[in-house]
Amino acid sequence: MASLQTPVCAFDTPAPDFSLPGVDGRVWTRDQCRGVGGLLVMFICNHCPYVKAVRERLVRDVKDLQALGIGCVAIMSNDPADYPEDSFQDMQRVAREFGYPFPYLYDETQGVARAYGAVCTPDFFGYNAALGLQYRGRLDESRKEAAAPDVRRDLFEAMREVAQTGRGPAEQAPSMGCSIKWRAG
């Protein structure tokens, strides 16, 4: 389980389109997920300790961002053949258990993760209303364990700025997590 950090934000890179099945039985596209203030695309999974440490915070921050007009979506791109905990059925269970207030989508071909340049879980891509990239950073100081409850909410603060101004902060701390589990070949 390799631990990786995300690259720095390439400002204004356009958000790739997608059409993926969700745990709710619907097929979702990028434009169905976006909000009037922007779009947050999160690459997460079920088995990663970095994601497990922040699931409650993800739910909290997404609800707060949705109130600001930011649409949010989570995508699971790992190969469940090697990581059965990331199966579609377990995605459905985890989404119910934690009350995910966002579409949780399965990227079976891993093509969406490749199009976005996702490298780890969690990996956050924050876009403005014009779908230009403005944030590629961490949720907060959490790692494999949740950080203290009063730490700065990096992702929330950055995306609030994006919703209000259309631009993300110049200084961004990279996200850290488990590598995407790519299929062989």
TrEMBL record:
It holds the Pfam family AhpC-TSA. It comes from the Bacteria. Residues 9-161 form the Thioredoxin domain. InterPro entries: AhpC/TSA (IPR000866), PRX-like1 (IPR047262), Thioredoxin-like_sf (IPR036249), Thioredoxin_domain (IPR013766). This is Thioredoxin family protein. CDD domains: PRX_like1. PROSITE patterns: THIOREDOXIN_2 (PS51352). GO terms for molecular function: antioxidant activity; oxidoreductase activity. SUPFAM superfamilies: Thioredoxin-like.
